[in-house]
Design a protein that fits this description.
Length: 384
């Protein structure tokens, strides 16, 4: 058994200073130690997949990060681990507890996951080993992990057994209460009144507004492809998978680079998939985050099947979750207002109704995901 500080102090020496996760009783002393440290950041994510994406966003900013989770939540993280971290080659340390380990009595819901945890990491091609339970094992484990991440640029997992870390009480509150937005601005016609803008028109305007101090993260599907077709720039990030994780990726980047304007271009289907991150963004409140949700009430890139967004008021949700400024509309002026350079009192949110459909002969990016990542990090000066 080790003390949480034994591992965290040595991990800090290896550059790990950003943590995001969902608690497990096995992780309690570990998370408490991170929360109480004045030199570390801990993000309490709504689910394990958002934690992975938020750590990936911190990596874009040049920070090594740790995603923490219980193995019962590992399934929530499979999409961003395989279609974000793997595809873009984003390294991170994953600390996963081993509930339901063979031979250890546990609750029935952990039985199957306890049997297949290591196999799941193997299937995802993520090397794993036991979390160190003695001080002597810590440095060799961290060295193996960081050497692998440096050469392969992919995640490395440590599987924590029950009792590996001594108990430790929590001394500080981790998430401060914030004032909520009290007014939703509606610009032009009500958002639900047609005619609607095309996605291409909106992205054209975003490219006009996104100067060198802005990073544009486009959600998967037609949005990323149309942004590429509009203008392929070093400050653009085209998500090709991990649906719903654009805002959590943007959160990690915005928190680590307060000098930048981080513009997340989201979709209604993606936002519905991981709506919990609205609460995380609102709670941690990066003032430089601009969350633009393009809502055409459809999964456009798969045949325009309807989403349920016609019955959802995203602006009210953003307001309730603590976004500082919330705008709804269906015209270009609403977009211009939310992206005004003087607006640094965010997080800012825009619910913009748009039309379905895409441009003729829509291309796929000719640049690879790894090239997109490397180009962006060079632009940011954040190569590790």
């Amino acid at each position: 058994m080790i003390k949480a500080a034994d591992f965290i102090t040595r991990a800090r020496a290896h550059g790990f200073e950003f943590y995001a996760g969902v608690p497990c009783s096995f992780l309690t002393p570990f998370i408490n130690q991170v929360i109480d440290s004045p030199t570390l950041t801990y993000i309490s994510s709504a689910n394990e997949g958002d934690a992975v994406a938020t750590v990936a966003g911190a990596f874009l900013a040049g920070t090594r990060g740790v995603a923490m989770m219980q193995n019962s939540g590992l399934g929530n993280a499979i999409s961003p681990l395989t279609s974000l971290a793997y595809v873009f080659r984003i390294p991170m340390l994953v600390i996963c507890t081993h509930r339901g380990a063979p031979g250890v009595a546990d609750e029935p819901q952990h039985e199957l996951m306890g049997q297949i945890t290591t196999e799941l990491f193997d299937t995802m091609r993520i090397p794993s080993e036991a979390f160190p339970d003695t001080i002597e094992k810590i440095e060799p484990v961290l060295t193996r992990a960081t050497d692998y991440m440096a050469t392969e640029r992919r995640p490395y997992a440590l599987i924590m057994q029950k009792g590996a870390v001594e108990s430790r009480p929590l001394e500080n509150r981790s998430v401060a209460a914030r004032d909520r937005c009290h007014v939703i601005e509606t610009l032009g016609s009500p958002a639900t009144v047609a005619p609607y803008l095309s996605r291409a028109t909106v992205l054209d305007e975003i490219c006009v507004q996104a100067k060198d101090d802005s990073i544009v993260i486009a959600t998967t599907g037609f949005t990323g492809r149309e942004l590429y077709a509009t203008a392929d720039r070093p400050n653009h990030f085209y998500m090709v998978g991990s649906m719903g994780c654009a805002s959590s990726l943007g959160l990690g980047l915005a928190l680590r680079r307060s000098d930048l304007r981080v513009i997340v271009v989201d979709g209604d289907g993606a936002a519905l998939m991981r709506m919990g991150n609205f609460a995380t963004v609102g709670s941690y409140g990066p003032t430089n985050l601009y969350h633009v949700l393009l809502d055409n009430e459809a999964h456009d890139s798969t045949g325009a099947q309807a989403t349920v967004s016609a019955n959802v008021d995203f602006a009210e949700i953003a307001k309730a979750c603590g976004y500082t400024r919330v705008i709804r509309g269906n015209n270009i002026e609403a977009l211009r207002q939310v992206l005004k350079p003087s607006t640094r009192d965010g997080p800012n949110f825009l619910h913009l109704k748009i039309a379905t459909g895409t441009i003729d002969n829509l291309p796929r990016p000719a640049i690879t995901p790894v090239q997109v990542l490397d180009r962006l990090r060079l632009h940011l000066g954040s190569n590790l």
